Fold this sequence. Notes:
alpha/beta, six-stranded parallel beta sheet, 6 helices, 6 strands, about 35% helix, globular
Amino acid sequence: MKSLVVYFSAYGTTKAFAEEIAKQTGSDIAEILPVIPYDCDKEHYNALADYAKKEHDQNMRPKIKNPINISAYDTVFVGYPMWWYTMPMILYTFFENQNWNGKRVIPFNMHMGSRDGGTYKTVRELAKGAEVLEGLPLSMQTVESGAFSDQVKNWINGLGL
Length: 161
């Protein structure tokens, strides 16, 4: 199984989550970077939240600076923070620009109380032709605490990869 962990992270917590998955699975890793960077200063959280809501409300598709090719991989872990109870719109850009036929997709996400917010169902809809396995939602506080490697290990073991 050749696997890739793809993630989008504004504050670094999803990055830490993605790095733990890559470490435990021996996967390659790639970060989704927007052409127009988001303000990733936590002091400006409200401005980022307002912009994320605008993107969502206008059904925008932010451009990706570093196109990621998944063709060489059997399994693709896809991670993101929850923004306005859904995944960031740049994830829609990512999903819509891939050929998912025959792939195994495994979502994971950071949240502040909404768990996956129904996004795993959205991933199933967007990753046409892929088998989508059970995802893992972790709270931002859990990942920031650094005490989440056992949860990742148990989840991965439960997937039967």
